[in-house]
Design a protein that fits this description.
Order of helices and strands of chain B: HHHHHEEEHHHHHEHHHH
Structural class of chain B: mainly alpha
CATH class of the largest domain in chain A: Alpha Beta
Shape of chain A: globular
CATH topology of the largest domain in chain A: Rossmann fold
Helix content of chain A: 25-40%
Number of strands of chain A: 10
Number of domains of chain A: 2
Strand order of the largest sheet of chain B: 1-4
Structural class of chain A: alpha/beta
Largest sheet of chain B: 2 strands, antiparallel
Strand content of chain B: under 5%
Distance between the termini of chain B: 34 Å
Distance between the termini of chain A: 37 Å
Number of helices of chain B: 14
Oligomer: heterotrimer
CATH superfamily of the largest domain in chain A: P-loop containing nucleotide triphosphate hydrolases
Radius of gyration of chain A: 17 Å
Number of domains of chain B: 1
Chain lengths: 239, 328, 283
């Protein structure tokens, strides 16, 4: 078999005449960071939904570590080490920060959830706010909490949906570097959906380009950047 | 809160109850207080559902009344000793409420509340129209045996003793909930309440915990119903009426749903007010309706919330984190 | 015999259509389930009774809903509008408080005993329907129900105001941005909704007696209709209303012991299958 931690094959999601995804295939190797880019509506968030089990596939399959998870639900996939963050911050507003992160850790690692939570809170600089109620946090802190809920317990595969949304240029680059270091250290493989080109090309080992529900290019960052189809569809002359 | 502080709080509460039982001489006052405490337990059940699940039930009188009827029928038919009937009734309520919960907690937002009102009223109508053993609209007596759990009736029904029994039950309920909700079960249910979708994404199964909270809240209401028929020795369809559920809900909202001691506080305030109202008491519905509206608009976390804010000097209170009407 | 029972089912279904369309309209515009709707129905009925005492039924048929409409406009302006940013369940609790106030008001003014209202003289007779005599008044109720259903549907689909209402029900923010005065619209629609509740009350009075319990009796069935039909869906409400009307009427005759529980059974059965009702929940 193959060594990929994540493999999506010929994934399609059709509904009411719309082809949100039309035969998408992608792979993620262990320890790899793959960036997903493309115009709005190209299907990037949809493919995350497909991989996590949030939406049902019209066609295709998803494999986690060689095992077919296509028919499994969100909770089961999480149990097998698949985790995601959200583009629009999705946290537990009335719970205290530490309490919710510990809960998120529990499903990954019941025995060590307290230690795991402490570790990720420290990494994401949320320790000072650990005993506060989530809705009292500032925007940036809430984004990091969203990330913490996804990252805690060292998932095998981490899907990040525009983690830099709303952050300044400097904050974005800092977070990007930090994430890269963290995921290397914790051996987490990452699928990163992002609009910020500097971030994507800065930290990704591979890049996949979407357009209209299909993959139009995939490969090493430099190659993708130079690909004429990609430039025409998406990057324009700014690349 | 640490376990120590929770335990200390419980011990103090028990002490207060003991003092009241010992020092209050008037049987009528004790009787009134006992009623208040019974409703405090009932309100705790309703409040638990709102606090942990973010769900408003207008139909918990169902469990309150059914438990009284179950005892009445069991004692009348002599199927089993009273002690067993007590345990069996509570167990039966817990199980059946869990099954019901599995179905209805999936109903989103306000529709859930509407259903609870409908279900509760339907049982009320059925009880009112039934004839025979349950006495229909007239109700039936609940004939407790000479001793209950080893305690003779003559002792049990002294006002001070009855008050103390109910008070202890209330303290134990609040204590039990406090301890239970500190842990994982509390975390899980809070997460599901705040953000059901994200809860799934962090690996939490969302249906069973919510049904469990529903069942627990129903069982607490049933316990209150049990205490009520112990106090009065009588049960009638009125105990199943929506107004009874409504009163409990009022106590939860006015007392404050976020603190576990909020609903009991609401119950005590309600009974004190009713007493103070005197001649105006016939208009209790309008008065409490206005009180409910006022509290919701100005202090959604109720009296408990207001008191906590005063203590900590915190800014505006937040409204209940209820489940949105849409599924994602 | 069956004819009469089916007929009664139609009558009650028609009544529920009038009631529930009011509920659905208010929900559609304000995202509020008006727990006080049954009390408004009751208030309309009692007002109709008093007005009819002073003049006649026909005046009451117009005047009582008009008063209720005014009440609805005020309710929206000083209640729903001010609370529109709050959690929906918060507003529901407020309507519950309102229910308590109205119940108390009705009992204080009109007392707790049952009151009767006579059908207007013009309709106090029977019409022969293939050998079965049917009360003319009840036929009138069916007509009212049909008029409301058709009228609302035509209005919502055909008129400009109806278009605005449908738009505001789907997306209030964007509709407001398009220049539609959503506040005035909401006040109007809520007024219409409460008027419909009042109308249902006036219409119901001659064949269901007036009592303080009438609000809880009807609100249960109304909730079942709205939940089964799907919150916010008028079409769903119409269909569910007729189904429930039939079930209640037939159940009362053929399964009297179970009749109180039948709506609950139907509701649970539908909700197990479709948790958000047939037409789905509008958010």
């Amino acid at each position: 078999m193959n060594d990929y931690v994540l493999q999506a094959e010929d994934v399609a999601i059709h509904y009411g005449g719309v082809k949100a995804l039309d035969g998408v295939s992608l792979t993620l190797a262990r320890g790899q960071i793959r960036g997903l880019i493309g115009p709005n509506g190209a299907g990037k968030s949809t493919v995350i939904d497909a991989i996590t089990g949030r939406r049902r596939l019209t066609r295709g399959s998803v494999h986690l570590g060689g095992q077919d998870v296509t028919t499994l639900g969100v909770v089961e996939r999480r149990a097998r080490g698949l985790s995601r963050s959200f583009q629009r911050t999705s946290i537990f507003g009335q719970m205290r920060v530490r309490r919710q992160v510990e809960l998120a850790a529990h499903s990954m690692n019941p025995q060590g959830c307290v230690a795991d939570a402490e570790a990720v809170l420290q990494e994401l600089e949320l320790l000072p706010r650990a005993d506060d109620v989530a809705e009292d946090l500032g925007y940036g802190e809430q984004r990091r909490l969203d990330l913490a809920l996804a990252l805690v317990g060292r998932p095998t595969v981490l899907l990040l949906d525009e983690p830099m949304a709303g952050l300044s240029v400097k904050e974005s680059l800092d977070l990007a570097r930090h994430l890269k270091a963290l995921t290397q250290r914790w051996n987490v493989s990452v699928l990163l959906v992002e609009h910020d080109m500097d971030v994507v090309f800065g930290i990704s080992d591979a890049v996949t380009v979407f357009e209209l529900g299909r993959v139009i290019a995939s490969g090493e960052p430099a190659a993708v950047r130079a690909d004429p189809r990609v430039r025409e569809a998406y990057l324009g002359s700014a690349a | 809160m640490t376990i120590f502080r929770i335990g200390l709080g419980a011990a103090c509460a028990l002490a207060v109850g003991g003092a009241v039982a010992a020092l209050v001489g008037s049987g009528t006052v004790l009787s009134l207080l006992t009623q208040a405490v019974v409703y405090a337990v009932f309100a705790s059940g309703v409040g638990l559902l709102l606090k942990q699940n973010g769900m408003v039930s207008f139909g918990h009188a169902l469990y309150f009344g059914v438990s009284g009827y179950a005892m009445g029928i069991a004692l009348e038919l002599g199927w089993m000793p009273a002690e067993l009937a007590v345990v069996a009734t509570l167990a039966a309520v817990a199980v059946s409420a869990f099954v019901v919960g599995l179905v209805i907690v999936r109903v989103p937002g306000v529709a859930f509340s509407m259903m609870t009102l409908a279900i509760g009223q339907m049982f009320y109508l059925t009880a009112s129209r039934s004839r025979g053993l349950t006495g229909g609209a007239d109700g039936m007596n609940v004939n407790w045996p000479a001793t209950l759990f080893g305690v003779p009736q003559s002792l049990l029904h002294q006002p001070a003793v009855l008050f103390l029994v109910c008070w202890c039950a209330m303290v134990l309920v609040v204590l039990g909930l406090g301890l239970l909700l500190r842990g994982r079960f509390g975390s899980v249910t809070e997460a599901v309440r705040d953000n059901e979708e994200r809860a799934r994404f962090i690996g939490v199964r969302t249906l069973l915990p919510r049904a469990a909270i529903y069942a627990l809240s129903a069982t607490i209401a049933a316990l209150a119903g049990m205490l009520s028929v112990l106090n009065t020795g009588f049960i009638s369809p009125e105990a199943l009426h929506w107004s009874v559920s409504g009163v409990a809900l009022m106590m939860v909202v006015v007392g404050g749903y976020k603190a576990l001691w909020g609903p009991p506080l609401g119950a005590i305030v309600y009974f004190l007010f009713k007493d103070v109202l005197g001649d105006w008491a016939s208009h209790w519905m309008a008065i409490f309706g206005v009180a409910l509206i006022t509290v919701i608009v100005f202090s959604p976390t109720g009296l408990a919330g207001a008191l906590q804010r005063l203590r900590r000097g915190r800014p505006a209170a937040s409204a209940p984190a209820t489940r949105p009407a849409s599924a994602h | 015999m069956l004819t009469i029972n089916l007929f009664n089912g139609l009558v009650y279904g028609a009544l529920l259509i009038v009631m529930c369309s009011g509920l659905a309209l208010i929900y559609g515009l304000r995202r509020v389930v008006n727990f006080a709707h049954g009390s408004l129905y009751m208030l309309g009925a009692y007002l109709g009774y008093s007005i009819a005492l002073q003049s006649n039924f026909w005046v009451a048929l117009v005047a009582a809903p008009a008063v209720m409409a005014l009440f609805g406009v005020l309710l929206d302006r000083y209640g729903f509008r001010l609370l529109q940013d709050r959690d929906p369940l918060t507003v529901v609790l407020v309507t519950f408080g309102l229910l308590l106030v109205i119940e108390d008001f009705v009992q204080t003014v009109w007392g707790k005993s049952n009151l009767t209202v006579d059908a207007p003289a013009a309709l106090a007779r029977s019409v022969d329907f293939f050998g079965t005599p049917l009360p003319a008044y009840r036929i009138g109720v069916i007509v009212v129900g049909a008029l409301v259903a058709l009228g609302l549907t035509a209005w919502l689909r055909g008129s400009k105001a109806g278009l605005f209402v449908r738009a505001a029900s789907t997306d209030p923010t964007t509709t407001a941005m398009q220049g539609v005065n959503t506040d005035a619209l909401s006040a109007g629609v809520v007024g219409l909704g409460t008027a419909l509740a009042g109308l249902a009350g006036v219409v119901a009075a001659p064949f269901l007696s007036l009592s303080p319990a009438m609000s809880s009796d009807v609100i249960i069935d109304s909730f079942v209709v709205v939940v089964v039909g799907g919150l916010g869906s008028l079409a769903g409400a119409f269909i569910a209303a007729m189904v429930l009307g039939m079930v209640q009427a037939l159940g009362a005759v053929y399964l009297p012991a179970l009749s109180a529980v039948l709506p609950f059974v139907i509701m649970v059965a539908v909700l197990i299958w479709k948790p958000a009702g047939f037409a789905g929940s509008r958010t």
